[in-house]
């Protein structure tokens, strides 16, 4: 056969098989590249991956500590859930000393002086240093 003035010979079965394999390999490579591209676009970052449970944890009862850790991670991502109530605890405010009339104000003054050390503990410390 002639094609555009050039002689074209017929291909053998072996050549046709090789060409078919090459074509399939190129198509598979193109599909793989497309798949990698779509995976990289939808990839989760490290913080989001930490929120995913492993299959080992399915059916397990989560401890309060585990729930608290998860709540902290969710808070870092800006996700509000029912477990976020674990992050805060309600407690009564302490009474201020001036609210109690039976104690004078002088009792509650704060000083920058160190607390006095009992003489007995100083002597014990000296004896201990002497042994060494």
TrEMBL record:
Composition skew (Basic residues), residue ranges: 1-21
Ranges where the record places region Disordered: 1-24, 112-132
Compositional bias per record (Basic and acidic residues), positions renumbered to this chain: 121-132
Protein's name according to its UniProt entry: Uncharacterized protein
Source organism of the structure: Amorphochlora amoebiformis
